Write a sequence for this structure.
């Protein structure tokens, strides 16, 4: 349950993980009229902020758009503050959502209601949290759903690394090459979609990797206002469809 802030800055949780020190904090931004902002840091590196989530939302909207199925089974890789998962659940036809995160602490934030979307996501019967490594499950023989090996999905939406070339761990890099993408594609239904958030501009090398595996691949630039820089910023959402 969210509680009122007691000051200008609060650290809501902090813990050591296999990737380093993970912290969740909440602060008031005076430059923006005192709005509350939730931020996640890994060591000294900012991972995400509730102030900037347009592209995370667009990941779900663009990734699920136009899939020809009455009921959609979806995987989200990377829970974070929950924006991609929440928007996915709002899309027509979504009947089940597996949300995979390697950090159990992040899942716990949502279950404890420490983040704004936590209670909403946890209460939705269509959503299942999976504490596991997305990249291991993407190449595992049994697939993403441990309780139903071999299950195929209509869409896989991924937001873990900063970009295909700026990864949180070196072993993630293999996933973004054609051989890694091919293993992922075997877990998609015919016509299924793989969509990816990236902090960087569209990358030609990664587009070539997608084109080597998928029938149709596109890079969408998502722009949003950055109040700190007084100009627009942008992220990229890649959308690739299996034949």
């Amino acid at each position: 349950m969210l509680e009122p802030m007691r000051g200008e800055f609060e650290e809501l949780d902090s813990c050591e993980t296999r990737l380093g020190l993970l912290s969740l904090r909440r602060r008031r931004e005076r430059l923006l009229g005192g709005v509350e902002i939730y931020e996640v840091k890994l060591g000294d590196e900012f991972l995400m902020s509730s102030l900037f989530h347009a592209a995370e939302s667009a990941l779900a909207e663009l990734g699920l758009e136009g899939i020809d199925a009455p009921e959609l089974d979806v995987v989200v890789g990377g829970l974070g503050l929950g924006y991609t998962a929440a928007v996915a659940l709002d899309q027509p036809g979504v009947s089940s959502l597996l949300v995979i995160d390697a950090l159990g602490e992040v899942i716990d934030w949502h279950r404890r209601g420490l983040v704004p979307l936590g209670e909403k996501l946890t209460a939705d019967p269509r959503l299942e949290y999976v504490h596991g490594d997305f990249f291991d499950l993407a190449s595992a023989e049994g697939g993403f759903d441990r309780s139903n090996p071999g299950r195929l999905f209509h869409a896989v939406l991924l937001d873990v690394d900063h970009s295909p070339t700026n990864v949180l761990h070196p072993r993630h890099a293999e996933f973004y090459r054609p051989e890694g993408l091919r293993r992922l594609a075997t877990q998609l239904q015919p016509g299924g979609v793989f969509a990816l958030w990236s902090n960087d501009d569209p990358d030609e090398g990664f587009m070539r990797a997608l084109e080597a595996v998928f029938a149709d691949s596109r890079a969408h630039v998502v722009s949003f206002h950055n109040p700190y820089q007084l100009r627009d910023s942008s992220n990229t959402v890649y959308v690739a469809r299996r034949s």
Remarks:
- The radius of gyration is 18 Å.
- The domain at 52-241 is CATH 3.40.50.150 (Rossmann fold).
- The first strand starts at residue 9 and ends at 17.
